[in-house]
Every structure is written in C-alpha cells, then in structure tokens.
C-alpha cells in the first residue's frame, strides 16, 4: 500500500468494494433487526405463558399475574440477551474475546432452553403428549388384562386333569363293585376309599367349573373399561377433564384385573393335590376271611399308590400354571403436559424443534453477522482512512469543515468586535 503511494491494487479494490457492499446491506438490515428480534421474543413469551398456565393448578388472579410476569421476564431476557450478542460478538477482533462470547452464547442458549423452550414445547404439544401417556397406559392395562385372563384360563384347563383323575377312580370303584379289582364283589372297604376320592375330585371339578362364568364376565367388563378408556384418549375436549374420567375407568379396570387374578384355580388344585393322598380315611377291613382281608389290604395299598401318582400329576400341572409370569401391576399416574412433553420427547421432535428454534434462531443471526463483519474487516485490512472514504463520507467531511470554518469565522468576528470596543470605548 505504501509502495504504491495511495494507489490500490485490483485485489484490494475488490475487497474494498465487497466491504462497502456488505456495510450497505448491514445498514439496511439494522433497520428492522431489532423489531424482528422483538417479535420473536414476544412470540416465545406467549407460548411460555401458555406452558406456565398449564402447570399452575389455581386459575385465580394470582396465578394469572404470575404466568404473565414470568412470560414477560422471558421475553425481555431473550430480547436483551440476543441484542447484546448481536452487537458485541461480531465486533470482537481477538480470538480470546470471540471464544469468550461464543461460550457465553452457548451458556445463554442453554439457559433460554431451560426457562422457555420446554414450556413452549408444552404449549405446542402438551395435549398430544398427555394423550400419548393415556394411550400407553391403555396399552399397559390391555396387556395386564389379557395376561390375567390367560392365566385364569390356564387354571381352568386343570379341570380336565381333575376330570380324568375322577373318572379313573370311578372306573376303579365300578371294578371293585363287580369284584374284578380285589376279587370280592360289593361295596366294601376298597370301594369306599375309591368313591371317597372320586367325590373329592368331583367337588373340586365343580368348583373349577363355577369359576368359568365369573372369568368370562370379568374379562368382558375389563374390555368394556378398556373401550371407554380408548374413547377418552381420542375424544374431543380438554385433556385435563378427560384425564379425570380416564383415572376413574383405570381404577375400575385395576379391580377387574385383581379379580381375574383371584379367579385362578391353580392354587386350589395345588392344595387339593397335596391333600389327595394324605386325607385318606382308611376303613376297617370287612372281609369274611383273612385271605379276603389280605386282598383288600393289598388293593388299598395299590389305591394309595395310584392316589400318590395322581397327586404328583395334578401338582405338576398346577405348578406349571403357578409358574406363569403374573401380569405387571399397572396403575395410571396423572401427568402434566410439561412433564408429558419431556417424557415422550422422542415422539414430538417437530414440536421440540419449533419450540427451541423460536428461542435460538437469533443465534444464527449472531454468527451470520460475525462472519459478515469479519469479511468487512478483511476487505479493509491494511488500508488507510483515505482509501476507505466514500463520496458520501467525503461530502459529510466537507460539510463538517464548512461548519467548522463558519463557526470559527463567527468567533473571529466576535473577538474582533470586542477588541475594537476595548480600544475605542467611545
């Protein structure tokens, strides 16, 4: 620059023209940037107000003014913070200053997300998030109801095992009555043992059969509760009111699931299987001769062995049912719209993106302005003030010089007049 004695190279002239053009654009953009920033801040404040209102249980005047005060504070904070960043960060010329303000921008952005963006998301998608919570709860209750019903039906299937055991003892009793079992026809001691066990199994079979209509009735009622809960999930109207009715239906459904768990006959069959061989009342042998009594005793021992075998079979079948995983205990926990938006954030990515963008969009403007200012400084780097003066700058400087000269002329005239008066007072 000094070697050319004031004459610019082609590259320097191009850089200067670029800098002047960018300055012209920035001057035009500065005319509406504060207004645009104010609009963004007010919009964020409005959505913040809606989010805060959804968190406050009281709808009185105090809560209203509290929500308004918070939203105003958020709007002012966003406007002031980004105004600082728009002015200061692009003007930083040192690396340390630029890095420091960049870190400050990041910290401020995190603070804005913490105090505003999540509330904006609650206002944008709060109702939908609560409905998502209701839908997930319905899904959990449906799984629990179906599992409890399956376990109850598995217990009912034990009735077939009990029926087979009963029929085998009845057949043995018929054989004993005809004399084909112990060799002595009639209804003696062996016959009474067999009929005793057959009667016990019949009573157990009747108890199992009595549970079937109760299970079906409970399952039908549970499905009706589920249908009502599904309707409330997608029904029109405020989600808060629907949540209250949803909670009532969930309590009823929880009671139905609890009854289904109690209707399972597996514990009853397991206890009956344990009692089957141990509760035998051995009758007095009534054979006419010792040979007959020995035959009766041998037959009774065989019956006891059969009872023990049937007991293990029933016990194993009951243990399989008891070993089934019980339904997960499900309970509906009411949730606020703000908490629901956070819990189901992955389902509402667009709403979160919009809520954060409305607060952090000025950050893009800050870095755009910083890049532009750096380009302007690069275009003017190494040039003297004479090289960077435009015609308007020169015109303004000449006008300023004229004003100074006029002011100095008036001052000189005043001084000359005062001097003349002092020399010639008359």
UniProtKB/TrEMBL annotation:
Keywords: Membrane, Transmembrane, Transmembrane helix
Transmembrane segments: 26-50, 62-86, 98-119, 352-376
Entry keyword Transmembrane: yes
Protein name, as recorded: DUF4407 domain-containing protein
């Amino acid at each position: 620059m000094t070697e050319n004695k004031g004459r610019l190279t082609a590259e320097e002239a191009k850089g200067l023209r670029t800098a002047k053009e960018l300055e012209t654009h920035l001057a035009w953009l500065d005319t509406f940037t504060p207004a645009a920033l104010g609009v963004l801040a007010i919009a964020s404040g409005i959505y913040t107000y809606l989010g805060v209102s959804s968190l406050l249980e009281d709808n009185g005047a105090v809560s209203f003014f509290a929500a308004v005060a918070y939203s105003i504070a958020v709007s002012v904070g966003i406007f002031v913070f980004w105004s600082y960043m728009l002015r200061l960060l692009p003007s930083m010329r040192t690396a340390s200053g630029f890095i420091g303000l960049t870190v400050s921008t990041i910290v401020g952005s995190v603070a804005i997300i913490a105090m505003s963006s999540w509330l904006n998301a609650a206002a944008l998608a709060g109702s939908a998030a609560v409905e998502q919570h209701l839908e997930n709860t319905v899904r959990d209750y449906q799984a629990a109801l179906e599992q409890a019903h399956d376990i109850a039906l598995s217990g009912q299937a034990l009735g077939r095992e009990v029926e087979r055991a009963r029929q085998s003892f009845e057949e043995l009793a018929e054989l004993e009555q005809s004399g084909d079992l112990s060799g002595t026809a009639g209804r003696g001691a062996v016959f009474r043992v067999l009929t005793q066990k057959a009667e016990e199994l019949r009573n157990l079979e009747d108890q199992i059969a009595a549970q079937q209509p109760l299970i079906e009735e409970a399952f039908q009622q549970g499905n009706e509760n589920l249908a009502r809960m599904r309707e409330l999930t997608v029904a029109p109207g405020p989600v808060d009111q629907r949540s209250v009715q949803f909670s009532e239906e969930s309590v009823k459904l929880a009671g139905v699931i609890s009854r289904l768990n109690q209707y399972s006959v597996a514990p009853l069959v397991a206890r009956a299987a344990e009692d089957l061989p141990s509760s035998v009342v051995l009758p007095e042998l009534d054979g006419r001769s010792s040979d007959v009594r020995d035959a009766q005793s041998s037959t009774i021992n065989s019956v006891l062995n059969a009872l023990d075998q049937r007991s293990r079979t029933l016990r194993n079948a009951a243990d399989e049912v008891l070993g089934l995983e019980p339904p997960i205990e499900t309970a509906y926990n009411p949730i606020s719209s703000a908490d629901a938006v956070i819990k189901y954030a992955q389902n509402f990515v667009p709403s979160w993106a919009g809520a954060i963008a409305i607060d952090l969009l000025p950050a893009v403007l800050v870095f755009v302005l910083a890049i532009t200012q750096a380009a302007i400084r690069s275009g003017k780097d190494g040039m003297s003030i004479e090289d960077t003066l435009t015609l308007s700058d020169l015109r303004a400087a000449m006008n300023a010089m004229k004003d100074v000269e006029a002011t100095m002329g008036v001052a000189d005239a005043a001084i000359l007049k005062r001097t003349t008066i002092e020399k010639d007072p008359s």
